[in-house]
Amino acid sequence: MSMLWEKSETWRWIVRKTRDSRPFFLGFATICGVVPGVIGYCVMQATNTRNPELETRLRQTARPESIMMGKVNQERLAEYLRELQRKEDTNDRYVAALRGETLTRKPYVRIQPVPKPIDTVADKEQKTDKDRKK
Prior knowledge:
Blueprint: H1 2-7, H2 9-20, H3 22-47, H4 52-60, H5 64-85, H6 91-98, H7 121-133
Helix pairs in contact: 2-3
Region (Disordered): 114-134
Protein name: Centrosomal protein
């Protein structure tokens, strides 16, 4: 990076001008900040398609897993927004996530631990066989 300001005469000129002239500094800062923003906005507008036919075709060809995940995410977002409207404290959501727990199993019931796998009859028989061998 030092090569940029040590060897480039153009960069030195820009640094001198921005140091000496406040209007040049503001103009240069505007060019560096606003122009890329305008270009990005124009690109987003050009590539954004609000074509209802395309949306319906994409929804019809979606995989069942994608549809299910979309519904689940929509339900979770709705629950979170309702909590925000009620001005509930949602910090416990993060605490639960750190402990491997979830808050969205049953509606309106907050922290719930992740259920442990239930021991089946076959598992119990294997355990008793191991105990007998010892």
